[in-house]
Amino acid sequence: MKLSDVSAAFESFSGTVSDLARKLGLAGIAVIWIFKIDHKAGSPSLPADLYLPLAIFCAGLFVDLLQYLYATIAWASALNFSGKSKDNDLIKVPEWINKPTWVFFALKIVCFLAGYILLLEFVIHNI
Question: What percent helix, strand, coil does the chain show, rounded to 5?
Fold first, then answer.
């Protein structure tokens, strides 16, 4: 198998994981919204046990934004500071440039997993 084929598969699968994680985070927030309680017309509230999973889902979405924001800035900087203008020009890119992206990626997945574990715990105990 060619290195380019492995790289293409990797990019495809990691992109799919990110897309699915983001959708699952939004779906988790939607499921939590189903459990809102209307005490009076116009003032919904959540059961206290759902505040933490909601915060974790929101944090996961924020980390998702940070992942792509960092990667965009890092790679734009590498491109701009290279001084190269032709597509075939080779540029030196620091090895560490993707490490923060991977940290954000892993943290995002951990947030969504933790959010779903807490949400499932709530559902199991309350339904």
Answer: 80, 5, 15
| Residues 101 and 36 sit within 8 Å (Cβ to Cβ) | no
In-domain check, residue 70: yes
Indicate whether 67 belongs to any domain.
yes
Q: Which 3 state secondary structure label does DSSP give 37?
A: strand
Residues 1-56 have pLDDT tens digits of: 786 777 788 888 888 999 999 999 999 999 999 988 777 766 778 899 999 999 99
Q: How many domains does the chain have?
A: 1
65, 18 Cβ separation under 8 angstroms: no
Domain span at residue 112 reads 49-81+93-127
